[in-house]
Write a structure and sequence with these properties.
Blueprint: E1 9-16, E2 22-28, H1 32-36, E3 53-56, E4 61-63, E5 66-73, E6 76-87, E7 91-95, H2 99-104, H3 109-114, E8 123-124
Antiparallel strand pairs: 1-2, 3-7, 4-5, 5-6, 5-8, 6-7
Length: 132
């Protein structure tokens, strides 16, 4: 669309035509009048979206069924527990756990008080080794 509006759509059908060609049929309920005014239109499809911090999958390590990143602040490394909300081939969307979620995971009040959160401009390591 000329105005670059983000419009939600529902995939109603996927048709495998040839080896690498797929036809995707989308159902769109909004901005239809604008769409029919153009002879040719282009789409940028967003397969999923979620709010959080985008990090490379190589930065996430698992330990005891929990996900961590290693943060580097002025040379001091900290293992930070994170919640992976969505994961793609190369990147994941992560966020910090809430107090309620940490309680449900079995953390004590003392552990929750010491819980370090990941923030927007934190520097994280790729392929961290939790044993170091």
């Amino acid at each position: 669309m000329a105005n670059n509006v983000e419009v939600a759509a529902k995939i109603t059908n996927l048709i495998q035509e040839e080896e690498n060609d797929v036809v995707i049929i989308l159902k769109i309920d909004k901005q239809i009048e604008e769409l029919i005014n153009y002879r040719k239109i282009s789409f940028d499809l967003i397969w999923w979206d979620d709010l959080g911090l985008k990090v490379p999958n190589q930065a996430i390590v698992k330990s005891q069924d929990l996900d961590y990143v290693v943060r580097n602040r002025a040379g001091y490394l900290s293992k930070i527990l994170v919640k992976v909300k969505k994961q793609g081939e190369k990147y994941s969307i992560i966020e910090a756990y809430s107090t309620e979620e940490l309680t449900k995971l079995g953390f004590s009040n003392e552990e929750i008080a010491k819980y370090k959160k990941i923030t927007l401009y934190d520097e994280i390591l790729l392929k961290p080794n939790l044993n170091e």
